[in-house]
Amino acid sequence: MSDALTLPAEARERAGKGASRALRREGRVPAVIYGGKEEPTTIHIEGKELMRQLMTGHFMNSIVMVEIGGDKVRTIPKDVAFHPVTDRPIHADFLRLSKDSKIEVAIPVVFINEEASPGLKKGGVLNIVRHELELVCEADKIPSEIEIDVTGKEVGDSLHISEVSLPEGSTSAITDRDYTIATLVAPSALKKAEGDTTEEGEEAEGEEAAAAEGEASAE
């Protein structure tokens, strides 16, 4: 599970575009906490601290304890909006969580035991179709990543969601199909070599046929 993060925040006294612009000029990011059958809570966060936590790479899949005036609110980030030119965060949304909450999250995949794949040993290439899995997880059991074992996989094999051992408290959010996560394909160099061999064979056959026709005409 991803470690819980702590994010200091302050309550917003005023709402509206003007107040939000003023906060941004001070290096703060307007934000809101909603859900949990409670009224939304408007807050603002230090922009540099939010950016630092975003740079960890797992912020969007982590439990974030938002500290407001000595109180801690258990949340998970749902959306961060960025400025189109500067790429700085300009607004953030957080979902309030209870211990029995279940939420949909996108979890990155990591492929393991590549040295135990005959196909990869022969020069095959792992073509990743999905870099993340859409899962429904219990709020206190959100995995930081999902490991997918490629032991025994040959060129031409595919890896589907049904083959993945999901951790306790997690299920696939997509249930109507057994979707593909990755395929093991032949390297492009090998494909090209095979294609060149085929073309040479076809050219040779064409030359032999032309020669045979020439001999028949001469007779």
Automatic annotation (TrEMBL):
GO MF annotations, alphabetized: 5S rRNA binding; structural constituent of ribosome
Report the record's Gene Ontology biological process terms: translation
One Pfam family cited in the UniProt record for this chain:
Ribosomal_L25p
User: Domain Large ribosomal subunit protein bL25 L25 spans what residues?
Assistant: 8-94
Disordered, as annotated region: 1-21, 190-219
InterPro entries, alphabetized: Rbsml_bL25/Gln-tRNA_synth_N, Ribosomal_bL25/Gln-tRNA_synth, Ribosomal_bL25_b-dom, Ribosomal_bL25_C, Ribosomal_bL25_long, Ribosomal_L25_dom, Ribosomal_uL5_bac-type
- Provide the Gene Ontology terms for cellular component: cytosolic large ribosomal subunit
Q: In terms of domain of life, where is this protein from?
A: Bacteria
Domain Large ribosomal subunit protein bL25 beta, first and last residues per copy: 102-187
The record's listing under CDD domains reads: Ribosomal_L25_TL5_CTC
Q: Which UniProt keywords apply?
A: Ribonucleoprotein, Ribosomal protein, RNA-binding, rRNA-binding
Comp. bias (Acidic residues): 196-219
What family does this belong to?
Belongs to the bacterial ribosomal protein bL25 family. CTC subfamily.
**Job description of the protein:** This is one of the proteins that binds to the 5S RNA in the ribosome where it forms part of the central protuberance.
| Assembly notes | Part of the 50S ribosomal subunit; part of the 5S rRNA/L5/L18/L25 subcomplex. Contacts the 5S rRNA. Binds to the 5S rRNA independently of L5 and L18.
Question: What is the designated name of this protein?
Answer: Large ribosomal subunit protein bL25
Species assigned in the record = Pontixanthobacter rizhaonensis
